[in-house]
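Quick one:
INPUT:
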C-alpha cells in the first residue's frame, strides 16, 4: 500500500522529513536560501523541527515503539 493511503506510513514519512531537514539545516546553511516554492517545504520542515524539537522527538520515539512492537 502506498504511503499516501496508510496514515501510519504518512506520519512516519512526515516525521522523517522534519528530522532530516532540521539535521541538514544544522550542518549546513543549505535550506536558508529558498523560503518559497517547492524548496520552501524543506525550509518550513526544518523550522518545525527546530522550534518543536521536544514534540518531534517524543513523536519519533512513540512511532519507533509503535513500529517495533505493534506492526
Amino acid at each position: 500500500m502506498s504511503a499516501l493511503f496508510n496514515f501510519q506510513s504518512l506520519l512516519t514519512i512526515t516525521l522523517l522529513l522534519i528530522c532530516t531537514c532540521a539535521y541538514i539545516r544544522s550542518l549546513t546553511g543549505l535550506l536558508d536560501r529558498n523560503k518559497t516554492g517547492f524548496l520552501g517545504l524543506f525550509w518550513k520542515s526544518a523550522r518545525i523541527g527546530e522550534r518543536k524539537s521536544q514534540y518531534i522527538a517524543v513523536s519519533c520515539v512513540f512511532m519507533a515503539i509503535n513500529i517495533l512492537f505493534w506492526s
